[in-house]
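Hey team,

Filing this mostly as a record. A colleague (T.K.) asked me to run one chain through the structure pipeline before their review meeting, and I want the input and output archived in the tracker in case anyone asks later how it was produced. No errors, nothing strange. Just documentation.

Input sequence:
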Amino acid sequence: MTQPVIIDNSIVIRWFHPSGTVEELTRADKILDSLESGHLVPLAPFILTMEFLNVLHSLARKGELKGNIESVLIHFEHLSFDVIGAEYNALLYIQALSELCSRYDVSAYDAAYLELAIRLECPLLTLDKMLKKAAKKAGVNTAPKLN
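Output structure:
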């Protein structure tokens, strides 16, 4: 059985630049294993593409990225993320994100992940404590069963 899930950059970046606690890295690895086994179908709002690329370039400038950006992007492509935009016009989308920012005290970036999880009724996988807390308050599952 495959399960669609929203995955944020706090997890994605750890697949290419292992940093953080052992617990965070273990969680990220389990999610990657579930993706690669076909158990999870990865979804993300369009903001993931910008966040991910921004962090990759930042790591490359610091000399902390193993390999080059192009090889990382090819690997990312093989994960088959379905990057999803807004279903409505820009103003309505911004208003929806603003409402989530205010209600759950999250950044606009995090609100994009939360909005998509709510809209698609999908679990949200994140290592970001504030986003996880907001998702739980919003009734979004943050701990789906992994392979």
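Quick notes for T.K.: The longest strand covers residues 40-45. The helical segments are 9-16, 22-36, 47-62, 69-78, 90-104, 108-120, 129-137.
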